[in-house]
Structure formats: C-alpha cells, structure tokens
Amino acid sequence: MSVEFLLTALVIVATPGTGVLLTVNAGLTRGPRASVVAALGCTLAIVPHAVAAITGLAALLHAGTVAFQAIKCAGVAYLLYLAWSSLREKDQPPGTAAPKSPGRVILSAVLVNVLNPKVTIFFFAFLPQFVRPGDPRSLLTMIELSGVFMALTLVVFLGYGVAAAAVRDRVLARPRVRAWMRRVFAGTLLALAARLAVE
Fold first, then answer.
1. Helix (DSSP H) and strand (DSSP E) numbers for the chain
2. What is the rounded distance in angstroms from the CA atom of residue 148 to the CA atom of residue 84?
3. Cα 41 from Cα 46, distance rounded (Å)
4. What are phi and psi of 94, to 5 degrees?
5. Measured between alpha carbons, how far is 65 from 88 in angstroms, rounded to an integer?
6. Domain boundaries, the chain
C-alpha cells in the first residue's frame, strides 16, 4: 500500500460531504452515541460500493444510463426528504428530544451513502489506479484498499461526530442557534441535492 493512496484517501474522506454532514448533525442534535452510530452507518454503506467496484458492477451501472439515473434520482429525492424533515422538526432543547433508535440512525446514514452514485464512481475510478495490471493479487489488493478506505472513513467521521457532540451544549443552548443550525443543515442538503441533480 502506497503513501499516495493513504494521503489521497484521507483527503477524500476528510472533505465534508453528505456523510460528514449527517454525522455532525447527529452529534450536535443527539449526542456522542448517535454520532458514533451515524459514523458506523456511513462506513457500512461503503461496502456495496466497494463490492460493485471490485466485481465490475460499477462499470455496468455507469454504462447503463437508466440504472445510473435511477440511483441518482433516488439519492436526490432522499437528500430533499432529509432537508424537508430538518426544516419541519420541532425545536426542542438538547437532551429533551426523543432519541432515535440506533437502527434508524444507521439506516439514514446507509441510505445517504448508498444512494450517492458518486461513491460508486469514485471506487470504480480511484481504486484501480493503485492496482498493477496483471497482478495475480489484484483482487486481494482491491479488497485491502477498500478496507483501509473504510477504516479511514470511520476514524475521520468519528472525529467529526465526537467533536460536534463535545460542543453541542454550548452551541445549542439557545433556541435561535438551534433554529439556525436546522436551516443551515437543510440548506446544505438542498445544495448537495441540486449539485447531484445537475451532474
């Protein structure tokens, strides 16, 4: 495994996207446990993309315009749903909201990443660059690289989520700040949905 792979993967993982946004929001609104569960869910969602890239299904998805567009539309729709849910959420002081079950948090996190076709394209375009053509260990190498990418994702997302949870009481102590945070979260999701829709 090369240093180039580690550095590139770290930059890609650390760049905020929908998964980071969901994990940070979980930490701010639900606390450290929810942020850890969200980070696990986002990491778990990488598995289907990695499997698709390794088995070559990503090429078929990318070539099949209808299938690709269907996944893309589902991803846009889910981001819009999350934005709408955030805007209509009733204001409640930290610690008074009914906790979401770990299963629901994981499901939300998995859907955010599974319905993001850019992750599949990333795996399909990124991983092969670090596998030598004709290498008899190419399959094993791709599995190892995917595992490292997942481990980096988990560590980085845990960092984001736990940091957000650590400041939640100070940040969310006032109703206006909580309302502002909900609007920013919803606006960011809307922007991500619009960007995905036009790409």
1. 11, 0
2. 34
3. 9
4. -55, 135
5. 34
6. 3-7+18-198
